[in-house]
Amino acid sequence: MEIKNIMVVGAGLMGRGIVEAAAKAGYSVFWYEKNGEIGSSSFIKLKESMNKAVEKGKLEQSAKEKALNAVTLVDDITAAADVDMVIEAITEKISLKTALFTELDALCKEETLFATNTSSLSITELAGCTKRPDRFIGMHFFSPVPVMKLVEIIKGVETSDQTFNTAADIVTAMKKEYISAPDYPGFLVNRILLVMLNEAFNCIRDGMLPEDVDKGMTLGCNMPMGPLILADFVGLDVVYSVLTILYEGYGDNKYKPCPLLKNMVDAGHLGRKTGRGFYTY
Ligand SMILES: NC(=O)c1ccc[n+]([C@@H]2O[C@H](COP(=O)([O-])OP(=O)(O)OC[C@H]3O[C@@H](n4cnc5c(N)ncnc54)[C@H](O)[C@@H]3O)[C@@H](O)[C@H]2O)c1
Hints:
The chain is an alpha/beta fold. It folds into two domains: 5-181, NAD(P)-binding Rossmann-like Domain (Rossmann fold, 3-Layer(aba) Sandwich), CATH 3.40.50; 191-273, N-(1-d-carboxylethyl)-l-norvaline Dehydrogenase, domain 2, CATH 1.10.1040. The chain contains eleven helices and eight strands. The chain has an eight-stranded mixed beta sheet. Nicotinamide-adenine-dinucleotide binds next to helix 1, helix 4 and strand 6.
Protein backbone atom coordinates (compact mmCIF):
# COMPACT_ATOMS: atom_id res chain seq x y z
CA MET A 1 0.00 0.00 0.00
CA GLU A 2 1.33 3.44 -0.86
CA ILE A 3 1.49 5.74 2.12
CA LYS A 4 1.11 9.46 1.42
CA ASN A 5 0.01 10.92 4.69
CA ILE A 6 0.83 9.91 8.23
CA MET A 7 -0.56 10.93 11.59
CA VAL A 8 1.98 10.97 14.42
CA VAL A 9 0.36 10.95 17.87
CA GLY A 10 2.23 12.51 20.81
CA ALA A 11 4.47 15.56 20.84
CA GLY A 12 7.08 14.35 23.31
CA LEU A 13 10.70 13.67 22.49
CA MET A 14 9.94 10.67 20.28
CA GLY A 15 6.83 11.98 18.54
CA ARG A 16 8.75 15.13 17.53
CA GLY A 17 11.64 13.10 16.16
CA ILE A 18 9.33 10.84 14.17
CA VAL A 19 7.50 13.87 12.75
CA GLU A 20 10.84 15.33 11.64
CA ALA A 21 11.91 12.07 9.98
CA ALA A 22 8.53 11.61 8.26
CA ALA A 23 8.31 15.20 7.00
CA LYS A 24 11.89 15.13 5.65
CA ALA A 25 11.02 11.87 3.87
CA GLY A 26 8.26 13.68 1.96
CA TYR A 27 5.18 12.47 3.81
CA SER A 28 2.37 14.81 4.64
CA VAL A 29 2.14 14.72 8.45
CA PHE A 30 -0.74 15.39 10.80
CA TRP A 31 0.69 15.73 14.29
CA TYR A 32 -1.82 15.12 17.06
CA GLU A 33 -1.08 15.97 20.70
CA LYS A 34 -3.83 16.12 23.31
CA ASN A 35 -2.08 18.84 25.33
CA GLY A 36 -2.12 22.03 23.21
CA GLU A 37 0.68 23.74 25.15
CA ILE A 38 3.00 20.76 24.71
CA GLY A 39 2.07 20.63 21.01
CA SER A 40 2.94 24.29 20.43
CA SER A 41 6.23 24.19 22.34
CA SER A 42 7.22 20.95 20.64
CA PHE A 43 6.55 22.52 17.23
CA ILE A 44 9.03 25.28 18.12
CA LYS A 45 11.59 22.62 19.06
CA LEU A 46 10.93 20.86 15.75
CA LYS A 47 11.77 24.07 13.89
CA GLU A 48 14.92 24.52 16.00
CA SER A 49 16.02 20.98 15.25
CA MET A 50 15.57 21.49 11.51
CA ASN A 51 17.35 24.88 11.66
CA LYS A 52 20.28 23.15 13.33
CA ALA A 53 20.33 20.56 10.53
CA VAL A 54 20.52 23.41 7.99
CA GLU A 55 23.34 25.12 9.95
CA LYS A 56 25.28 21.87 10.00
CA GLY A 57 24.84 21.50 6.24
CA LYS A 58 22.76 18.33 6.65
CA LEU A 59 19.57 19.82 5.19
CA GLU A 60 18.95 22.32 2.40
CA GLN A 61 17.02 25.45 3.39
CA SER A 62 14.40 24.68 0.71
CA ALA A 63 14.03 21.08 1.96
CA LYS A 64 13.57 22.40 5.50
CA GLU A 65 10.80 24.74 4.39
CA LYS A 66 9.11 21.99 2.39
CA ALA A 67 9.28 19.60 5.37
CA LEU A 68 7.91 22.17 7.83
CA ASN A 69 5.08 23.04 5.44
CA ALA A 70 4.18 19.36 5.30
CA VAL A 71 3.46 19.27 9.05
CA THR A 72 0.06 20.23 10.44
CA LEU A 73 -0.27 20.33 14.22
CA VAL A 74 -3.79 19.29 15.24
CA ASP A 75 -5.55 19.09 18.58
CA ASP A 76 -8.49 17.15 17.21
CA ILE A 77 -8.10 13.41 16.71
CA THR A 78 -10.74 13.32 13.95
CA ALA A 79 -7.99 14.46 11.54
CA ALA A 80 -7.06 10.74 11.59
CA ALA A 81 -10.08 9.93 9.40
CA ASP A 82 -8.18 10.51 6.16
CA VAL A 83 -4.66 9.32 6.92
CA ASP A 84 -3.00 6.21 5.46
CA MET A 85 -0.95 5.45 8.55
CA VAL A 86 -0.83 6.34 12.25
CA ILE A 87 2.41 6.19 14.24
CA GLU A 88 1.71 6.36 17.97
CA ALA A 89 4.31 7.84 20.34
CA ILE A 90 2.33 8.68 23.47
CA THR A 91 3.12 8.02 27.13
CA GLU A 92 4.23 4.44 27.84
CA LYS A 93 1.08 3.26 29.60
CA ILE A 94 -1.01 0.38 28.28
CA SER A 95 -4.36 1.86 29.37
CA LEU A 96 -3.63 5.14 27.51
CA LYS A 97 -2.44 3.35 24.37
CA THR A 98 -5.37 0.92 24.19
CA ALA A 99 -7.86 3.78 24.73
CA LEU A 100 -6.20 5.72 21.90
CA PHE A 101 -6.08 2.79 19.45
CA THR A 102 -9.70 1.86 20.18
CA GLU A 103 -10.73 5.42 19.32
CA LEU A 104 -8.54 5.51 16.20
CA ASP A 105 -9.86 2.13 15.06
CA ALA A 106 -13.37 3.55 14.93
CA LEU A 107 -12.25 6.78 13.21
CA CYS A 108 -9.77 5.60 10.57
CA LYS A 109 -10.30 4.10 7.11
CA GLU A 110 -10.32 0.33 7.03
CA GLU A 111 -6.99 0.18 5.17
CA THR A 112 -5.15 2.60 7.50
CA LEU A 113 -2.10 1.00 9.11
CA PHE A 114 -1.33 1.44 12.81
CA ALA A 115 2.20 1.50 14.23
CA THR A 116 3.31 1.90 17.83
CA ASN A 117 6.68 3.18 19.04
CA THR A 118 6.34 1.41 22.39
CA SER A 119 9.63 0.36 24.02
CA SER A 120 8.25 -2.33 26.26
CA LEU A 121 4.62 -3.24 25.63
CA SER A 122 3.46 -6.25 23.61
CA ILE A 123 2.59 -5.44 20.00
CA THR A 124 0.20 -8.40 19.89
CA GLU A 125 -1.61 -7.17 23.01
CA LEU A 126 -1.96 -3.61 21.69
CA ALA A 127 -3.11 -4.89 18.27
CA GLY A 128 -5.74 -6.97 20.05
CA CYS A 129 -7.71 -3.89 21.06
CA THR A 130 -8.34 -3.09 17.39
CA LYS A 131 -10.23 -4.85 14.60
CA ARG A 132 -7.11 -4.64 12.40
CA PRO A 133 -4.39 -6.77 14.07
CA ASP A 134 -3.08 -7.69 10.60
CA ARG A 135 -2.52 -3.97 9.89
CA PHE A 136 -0.84 -3.24 13.22
CA ILE A 137 2.94 -3.22 13.76
CA GLY A 138 5.69 -2.04 16.09
CA MET A 139 8.11 0.58 14.76
CA HIS A 140 10.65 1.18 17.54
CA PHE A 141 12.67 4.31 16.83
CA PHE A 142 15.73 5.24 18.87
CA SER A 143 16.47 8.55 20.55
CA PRO A 144 17.36 11.10 19.26
CA VAL A 145 15.37 10.09 16.17
CA PRO A 146 16.93 12.61 13.73
CA VAL A 147 20.37 11.16 14.51
CA MET A 148 19.79 7.47 15.18
CA LYS A 149 19.82 5.27 12.09
CA LEU A 150 17.97 2.22 13.39
CA VAL A 151 14.30 1.28 13.60
CA GLU A 152 13.26 -2.11 14.98
CA ILE A 153 10.20 -3.42 13.17
CA ILE A 154 8.16 -5.83 15.25
CA LYS A 155 5.37 -8.02 13.90
CA GLY A 156 2.62 -9.05 16.29
CA VAL A 157 1.19 -12.55 15.96
CA GLU A 158 -1.39 -11.41 13.38
CA THR A 159 0.64 -8.74 11.52
CA SER A 160 0.69 -9.37 7.76
CA ASP A 161 3.82 -9.44 5.60
CA GLN A 162 2.30 -6.60 3.59
CA THR A 163 2.15 -4.41 6.69
CA PHE A 164 5.78 -5.30 7.51
CA ASN A 165 6.87 -4.40 3.96
CA THR A 166 5.06 -1.06 4.09
CA ALA A 167 6.70 -0.21 7.45
CA ALA A 168 10.07 -1.20 5.99
CA ASP A 169 9.49 1.09 2.96
CA ILE A 170 8.74 3.99 5.31
CA VAL A 171 11.95 3.39 7.28
CA THR A 172 13.91 3.29 4.02
CA ALA A 173 12.25 6.52 2.81
CA MET A 174 13.38 8.10 6.10
CA LYS A 175 16.94 7.08 5.12
CA LYS A 176 17.14 4.78 8.12
CA GLU A 177 17.92 1.08 8.49
CA TYR A 178 15.60 -1.52 9.97
CA ILE A 179 15.90 -4.90 11.59
CA SER A 180 13.11 -7.35 12.25
CA ALA A 181 12.76 -7.97 15.99
CA PRO A 182 10.53 -10.46 17.82
CA ASP A 183 7.50 -9.48 19.88
CA TYR A 184 9.11 -10.44 23.17
CA PRO A 185 10.06 -8.06 26.02
CA GLY A 186 12.84 -5.67 25.03
CA PHE A 187 12.51 -6.70 21.36
CA LEU A 188 16.16 -7.09 20.25
CA VAL A 189 18.38 -4.12 21.12
CA ASN A 190 17.11 -3.38 24.65
CA ARG A 191 17.15 -7.07 25.53
CA ILE A 192 20.90 -7.12 25.00
CA LEU A 193 21.70 -3.55 26.09
CA LEU A 194 19.90 -3.72 29.44
CA VAL A 195 21.85 -6.77 30.61
CA MET A 196 25.07 -4.88 29.93
CA LEU A 197 23.84 -1.74 31.74
CA ASN A 198 22.71 -3.83 34.72
CA GLU A 199 26.14 -5.46 34.96
CA ALA A 200 27.72 -2.00 34.93
CA PHE A 201 25.49 -1.08 37.92
CA ASN A 202 26.60 -4.30 39.68
CA CYS A 203 30.22 -3.21 39.14
CA ILE A 204 29.53 0.07 40.97
CA ARG A 205 27.78 -1.83 43.78
CA ASP A 206 30.94 -3.96 44.04
CA GLY A 207 33.09 -0.86 44.55
CA MET A 208 34.31 0.05 41.07
CA LEU A 209 34.36 3.69 39.99
CA PRO A 210 31.96 5.01 37.31
CA GLU A 211 34.88 6.63 35.49
CA ASP A 212 36.73 3.29 35.35
CA VAL A 213 33.68 1.33 34.17
CA ASP A 214 32.93 3.85 31.42
CA LYS A 215 36.59 4.19 30.39
CA GLY A 216 36.87 0.41 30.28
CA MET A 217 33.91 0.04 27.96
CA THR A 218 34.69 3.02 25.71
CA LEU A 219 38.39 2.24 25.22
CA GLY A 220 38.18 -1.54 25.66
CA CYS A 221 35.10 -2.18 23.54
CA ASN A 222 35.10 0.88 21.32
CA MET A 223 31.68 1.98 22.62
CA PRO A 224 31.01 5.64 21.76
CA MET A 225 29.82 6.28 25.31
CA GLY A 226 30.14 4.29 28.53
CA PRO A 227 27.17 2.38 30.01
CA LEU A 228 26.82 4.63 33.08
CA ILE A 229 26.85 7.89 31.10
CA LEU A 230 24.30 6.29 28.79
CA ALA A 231 22.06 5.15 31.68
CA ASP A 232 22.19 8.66 33.21
CA PHE A 233 21.22 10.07 29.81
CA VAL A 234 18.27 7.69 29.31
CA GLY A 235 17.04 8.18 32.91
CA LEU A 236 17.56 5.64 35.68
CA ASP A 237 13.80 5.34 36.29
CA VAL A 238 13.28 4.37 32.64
CA VAL A 239 16.17 1.88 32.81
CA TYR A 240 14.74 0.40 36.04
CA SER A 241 11.27 0.08 34.53
CA VAL A 242 12.53 -1.66 31.35
CA LEU A 243 14.70 -4.07 33.40
CA THR A 244 11.67 -4.91 35.56
CA ILE A 245 9.62 -5.64 32.44
CA LEU A 246 12.39 -7.91 31.10
CA TYR A 247 12.71 -9.67 34.48
CA GLU A 248 8.97 -10.25 34.75
CA GLY A 249 8.60 -11.13 31.04
CA TYR A 250 11.34 -13.79 30.90
CA GLY A 251 11.45 -14.79 34.59
CA ASP A 252 15.23 -14.90 34.21
CA ASN A 253 17.51 -13.63 37.00
CA LYS A 254 19.94 -12.13 34.51
CA TYR A 255 17.47 -9.24 34.15
CA LYS A 256 16.96 -8.76 37.92
CA PRO A 257 17.51 -5.01 38.49
CA CYS A 258 20.64 -4.30 40.52
CA PRO A 259 19.55 -3.26 44.08
CA LEU A 260 21.79 -0.19 43.84
CA LEU A 261 19.78 0.99 40.83
CA LYS A 262 16.53 0.64 42.80
CA ASN A 263 17.99 2.65 45.70
CA MET A 264 19.05 5.43 43.34
CA VAL A 265 15.59 5.56 41.76
CA ASP A 266 13.92 5.57 45.20
CA ALA A 267 16.20 8.44 46.23
CA GLY A 268 15.24 10.43 43.13
CA HIS A 269 18.72 10.26 41.61
CA LEU A 270 17.49 9.63 38.09
CA GLY A 271 20.50 10.80 36.08
CA ARG A 272 20.93 13.86 33.91
CA LYS A 273 17.33 15.03 34.27
CA THR A 274 17.57 15.39 38.07
CA GLY A 275 21.20 16.57 38.08
CA ARG A 276 22.44 13.45 39.84
CA GLY A 277 22.84 9.82 38.84
CA PHE A 278 26.10 7.90 38.51
CA TYR A 279 27.59 11.33 37.79
CA THR A 280 26.69 14.83 39.00
CA TYR A 281 25.51 17.36 36.38
N1 LIG B 1 12.32 8.34 25.21
C1 LIG B 1 12.96 7.38 24.57
O1 LIG B 1 14.20 7.31 24.56
C2 LIG B 1 12.17 6.35 23.79
C3 LIG B 1 12.85 5.55 22.85
C4 LIG B 1 12.10 4.65 22.09
C5 LIG B 1 10.73 4.54 22.28
N2 LIG B 1 10.11 5.31 23.23
C6 LIG B 1 8.65 5.19 23.38
O2 LIG B 1 8.05 6.28 22.68
C7 LIG B 1 6.82 6.65 23.33
C8 LIG B 1 6.85 8.12 23.69
O3 LIG B 1 8.00 8.38 24.46
P1 LIG B 1 8.46 9.88 24.81
O4 LIG B 1 9.74 9.76 25.54
O5 LIG B 1 8.35 10.74 23.59
O6 LIG B 1 7.29 10.30 25.83
P2 LIG B 1 6.88 11.74 26.37
O7 LIG B 1 6.30 11.51 27.71
O8 LIG B 1 8.02 12.71 26.18
O9 LIG B 1 5.71 12.21 25.36
C9 LIG B 1 4.45 11.61 25.30
C10 LIG B 1 3.46 12.65 24.79
O10 LIG B 1 2.21 11.99 24.50
C11 LIG B 1 1.17 12.87 24.86
N3 LIG B 1 -0.04 12.07 25.04
C12 LIG B 1 -0.33 11.22 26.05
N4 LIG B 1 -1.53 10.63 25.83
C13 LIG B 1 -1.98 11.12 24.65
C14 LIG B 1 -3.15 10.87 23.88
N5 LIG B 1 -4.09 10.02 24.28
N6 LIG B 1 -3.30 11.52 22.71
C15 LIG B 1 -2.35 12.41 22.28
N7 LIG B 1 -1.22 12.68 22.95
C16 LIG B 1 -1.03 12.03 24.13
C17 LIG B 1 1.67 13.53 26.14
O11 LIG B 1 0.96 14.75 26.39
C18 LIG B 1 3.14 13.75 25.80
O12 LIG B 1 3.34 15.00 25.18
C19 LIG B 1 6.70 5.70 24.54
O13 LIG B 1 5.90 4.61 24.16
C20 LIG B 1 8.13 5.27 24.79
O14 LIG B 1 8.21 4.00 25.41
C21 LIG B 1 10.80 6.22 23.98
